Amino acid sequence: MAGALALARRGLGRAWPNPAVGCVIVQEGRVVGRGWTQPGGRPHAETEALGRADDRARGASAYVTLEPCSHHGETPPCADALIAAGVRHVVAAMEDPDPRVSGQGLARLRAAGIAVDTGPLADVAAEINAGFLLRVRAGRPLVTFKTATTLDGRIATHTGESRWITGEDARARAHALRAENDAIMVGIGTAVADDPQLTCRLPGMEACTPVRIVIDGRLRLPLTAKLVATAAATPTWLVTLADAPRERYKAFADCGVEVITVPAGEGDQPDMAATLQALGARGLTRVLVEGGGHLAAALFRASLIDRIVWFRAARLIGGDGVPAAVAFGVDRLADAPGFVRRSVEPCGEDVVETYVRRS
């Protein structure tokens, strides 16, 4: 199962709208087939592993990180494929909460006379697919806030200079994080000030660039921005309000940018809960938020940050520097968003800390 989970991780950032699943087929103590969910969510992991195993799947055991599907979608049910291949034993790390499956895949296997076990390394499987599980249960993707700051939480000097607060190792780690997410999201202030590309620029991983999303209530993003210029090659979405200038809609559409409208929230900006629901409806399971301070504050205020990845450089800027998150109305400590630290690791000359929201 540990091997199947390692394979499942290969699908992170590319398997959406489906979960990232891994499958290992074992015959008499030997691995005869391996597979993981392919880009776009299909073929599924079981189909990939069975194809590699071929006739050796008959009488074998299949280890899969999520319950095999039992419904017809873009591909036939994986439960049926395992039955047809003659697999004698299926071990699933966890059941699939998707109402279209939800125990039915395992029941179909048992009805066909296949021995079924569930539970091994279920906690690891749930962590890998935390975004998919959240979208099924709450309709929205998992949100990770990533920031790179000084020890006093500043992302730039008062003049706006921010390159580079952290070192090369931290920047490489951040690009790897982009590759593991379905989308990168920034606010319009960051998009205008930095004119970013929001791509994964690690050698050999350029194709792993996720969807790029800008929260832009008034469609202020310049048509000359790098995000717009490259939208035909890399999916780029703008989240805006319904009363944004209509003439801008067509201009962005002509450049290959998708415009998504949502209701207004506080400060006449896109409502973040509605935004995440809209992104979930489009199949996104994992969103990486990279700035800026106003977007971070809006998400923290709405309790919509699930994870934090915080890169810290051993330097100070002071109170006139730009904060990672602007004020978002915390009057009492009891009202402050709470997180549990999961890890602290050196990253070159910097430190990276990871947190999960306190349940």
Low-confidence stretches: none
How confident is the prediction overall: mean pLDDT?
A: 94
| Beta-strand content bin | 25-35%
User: Please, what is the oligomeric state?
Assistant: single chain
Give the helix proportion (percent range): 25-40%
Query: Counting H and I runs of at least 4 residues, what is the number of helices?
Result: 12
H/E series: HEEHEHEHEHHEEHEHEHEHEHEHEEEE
Q: Would you report the number of β strands?
A: 16
Q: Which structural class do you get from the secondary structure elements?
A: alpha/beta
The rough form would be described as: globular
Largest sheet: 9 strands, mixed
Distance between the termini: 27 Å
Side-by-side strand order of the widest sheet: 11-10-9-8-12-6-13-16-15
Radius of gyration: 22 Å
Folded structure, characterized:
28% of the residues lie in helices and 25% in strands. It contains 12 helices and 16 strands. Helix 3 packs parallel to helix 4. The longest helix is centred in the middle third of the chain and has 12 residues, at 168-179. The protein starts with a helix and ends with a strand. The mean pLDDT is 94.
Main traits of this protein?
nine-stranded mixed sheet; 12 helices; alpha/beta; 359 residues; 28% helix
How is the secondary structure organized here?
Elements: H1 2-9, E1 22-27, E2 30-36, H2 45-53, E3 61-64, H3 78-85, E4 89-92, H4 104-111, E5 115-118, H5 122-128, H6 130-138, E6 142-150, E7 154-156, H7 168-179, E8 183-187, H8 188-194, E9 211-215, H9 226-229, E10 236-241, H10 246-254, E11 258-262, H11 272-281, E12 286-291, H12 293-301, E13 307-313, E14 322-323, E15 339-347, E16 350-357
Parallel strand pairs: 3-4, 4-5, 6-12, 6-13, 8-9, 8-12, 9-10, 10-11
Antiparallel strand pairs: 1-2, 1-3, 7-14, 13-16, 15-16
